[in-house]
Amino acid sequence: MSDTQTILETDSEEWFLLRAVIPDDRDTRAWLLSQGASLIVREPVSLRDELLEEVAAIQTLSVSLDGLFIKNK
């Protein structure tokens, strides 16, 4: 992921901590979002908050489209 990455063990058998300097660009954000619940961004807090806002927007859109039907032509 990064030339500066470090993977650290945690007290959980299910989780590791990855520290890395990554680019702040669209591709990186898309990759982070693509990991779903398998990844938690801890820092920077601003990035974490922006990703959570995007997830909330996706959820809101999905709920609002629940009753959407395609019209027959």
From TrEMBL:
WCX domain residues: 5-58
Pfam families per UniProt: WCX
InterPro entries (alphabetical): WCX_dom
Protein name: WYL domain-containing protein
Source organism phylogeny: Bacteria, Pseudomonadati, Pseudomonadota, Gammaproteobacteria, Oceanospirillales
